[in-house]
Design goal:
By secondary structure, the chain is of the alpha/beta class. Helix content is 44%, strand content 18%. The chain has a five-stranded parallel beta sheet, sandwiched between helices. It starts with a strand and ends with a helix.
């Protein structure tokens, strides 16, 4: 059976793991990252002033979670008045998180990265008719979404709401995985941060035998920076694209061996 290691936190009824198992793969999740939420009081103040913004932009599930935590701590409904605004997300997972956690039906589910989201915003709105966006984000230096929006004439107010840290037990968990199951056939990286912290370790522990998959273009760019030229990139950051990627890779190997 083909072993697929997902470098992500396993969620209840996890869509990636479920799809893999339904298609005959043996899947396992190991968290590569931990998150520490910051500036929640300031975030709550901004959420409580919806009249100052045209909408909110979420580029990660953790940004959504930060807003949920800010609302919970304030013991007020901070989100209700945002529901009729121009709210955007990057990707399907963040869309689902915003919908289920905050009740916000955002645009951008089909955008796989920040660049595509900027394109959608430019297509949907006119800057001269749009106020500023609230943009809760990671403290990491990532793609400059605010800068790209500014180039198109849109204004955004950034606030750092979480720190991204390497999971303290990652190496021990991967070693346990190897001891019990052996080398993974495929390893899926879900973020540039995961690549930065643990790509070298994955290569070492699995003796460079595992095929590497990136969830999207930003993660792929980080892999290239780590000299991992030979890797796969999903067409979209979802389970269906992962299954297709695995199927195509295995079919290519089988065809070559014939």
């Amino acid at each position: 059976m083909t072993l697929v290691l997902l470098l992500k936190t396993e969620k209840p009824n996890d869509s990636f793991k479920k799809a893999l198992e339904e298609n005959g793969y043996r899947a396992h999740c190991i968290s590569a990252l931990e998150f520490c939420y910051i500036n929640l009081e300031e975030l709550a103040e901004q959420l409580n002033s919806p009249e100052e913004f045209s909408g909110i932009i979420f580029t990660s599930q953790n940004a959504v979670e930060a807003c949920a935590k800010a609302q919970s701590a304030s013991k007020r409904d901070l989100i209700g008045k945002w529901k009729d605004k121009f709210n955007y997300v990057v990707g399907e997972a963040t869309y689902t998180k915003a919908k289920e956690t905050l009740g916000l039906d955002c645009k951008g589910a089909s955008s796989g990265n920040a660049g595509k989201l900027v394109g959608q915003i430019v297509s949907d709105l006119k800057p001269e008719e749009t106020g500023k966006f609230l943009y809760p984000k990671t403290s990491l230096k990532t793609i400059d979404l605010a800068g790209r929006l500014a180039q198109e004439g849109f204004v955004s107010q950034e606030i750092e709401v979480y720190n991204t840290l390497p999971a303290a037990d990652f190496c021990a968990n991967v070693q346990s995985y190897k001891n019990n199951l052996g080398n993974a056939d495929f390893v899926v990286f879900f973020s540039p941060s995961g690549v930065e912290h643990f790509f070298s370790y994955i290569q070492m522990i699995f003796e460079k035998t595992s095929k590497i998959i990136a969830i999207g273009p930003s993660t792929s760019e980080k892999l290239l920076q780590c000299q991992a030229a030979d890797h796969y990139v999903l067409e979209s950051p979802n389970a269906d694209s992962l299954i297709k990627c695995l199927h195509d890779s295995i079919s290519a190997v089988n065809k070559h061996q014939q």
